Amino acid sequence: MTVRVAVLDDYQDVSRTFADWGSLGDQAELTVFTDHVDDTAVLVERLAGFDVVVAMRERTPFPAVVLDRLPRLRLLITTGMANAAIDLAAAERRGVTVCGTSSLPTGTAELTWGLILALLRHIPDESRRVQSGGWQATVGRDLSGSTLGVIGLGRMGVQVAKVGQAFGMDVVAWSQNLRPEQAAAMGARAVTRDELLSGSDVVTIHLKLSERTRGLIGEAELRSMRPDAYLINTSRGPIVDEAALLTALREGWIAGAGLDVFDAEPLPADHPLRTAPNTVLTPHLGYVTRGTYQRFFGEAVEDIAAFLKGQPVRVL
């Protein structure tokens, strides 16, 4: 029997090139969707005829209201081994196997530094100026001797902190359960959240989104930052109060922001962040690298092949 496989939210239309889907032979019929669907009814209609769905991270949520209306679905694969947008209990109740893939742990930390350098050295502005016939117009900031504030010194935050040290920055860190000896082992100083916000030239966020971290950086926190400081968020949009951030940028509470994540993704075309001053914005590119995609889609094919043979898959 041939199973129908849907790959969702393949914005760049590259999933076919990063995996050997042909290895599944006649057992699978592949359909790739390059657009994003927000409407539940439209999504259910689109997926009604598929046995297997490959979800790109958390771009498309799978709550119970969706899963309960997809009786044909047998296997749901998420890229990565965690996905807060999938109701695992509802999937189990429906008899849907949910599995994942591995990923590379470095892409988001690398992009974080791309945003920091782009902001502090005005790279996008100066590039556009040269391309249009102009020349120097801005003065960049030095990283060496400045202070990097890392909110969340976990796997991602540690990578970012190490690069800051290599640039000669003083690295301070805060998270709710961070102990001074843990920070010191990573070459950072543990400080209070208020000390980090008020004393850092660059504040970068590396936390998981949860009820504890939602809205963690709001008006009070943004006002406590220095007017010449920058905020970087490559974690999840709702960790920062978006309305407060817009006001902070427009009124000059902070010098600027580098954002790879947003409350609504894809970011609506008329969203005010698109025209906010002193920003560098990227469309959730943290994990979007060749190496990561090879793992995502290559292992998705492996999961499908194993499932069809009745072999173990990488269950979440």
Automatic annotation (TrEMBL):
GO molecular function, one term: NAD binding
Domain called D-isomer specific 2-hydroxyacid dehydrogenase catalytic: residue spans: 24-313
Any Pfam family matching the protein: 2-Hacid_dh
InterPro entries in the cross-refs: D-2-hydroxyacid_DH (IPR050857), D-isomer_2_OHA_DH_cat_dom (IPR006139), D-isomer_DH_CS (IPR029753), D-isomer_DH_NAD-bd (IPR006140), NAD(P)-bd_dom_sf (IPR036291)
All residue ranges annotated as the D-isomer specific 2-hydroxyacid dehydrogenase NAD-binding domain in the record: 114-286
Keyword annotations of the record: NAD, Oxidoreductase
Entry coiled-coil feature ranges: none
Family (UniProt): Belongs to the D-isomer specific 2-hydroxyacid dehydrogenase family.
Record-linked PANTHER family: D-ISOMER SPECIFIC 2-HYDROXYACID DEHYDROGENASE FAMILY PROTEIN (AFU_ORTHOLOGUE AFUA_6G10090) (PTHR42789:SF1)
Record's protein name: 2-hydroxyacid dehydrogenase
Organism whose genome encodes this protein: Rugosimonospora africana
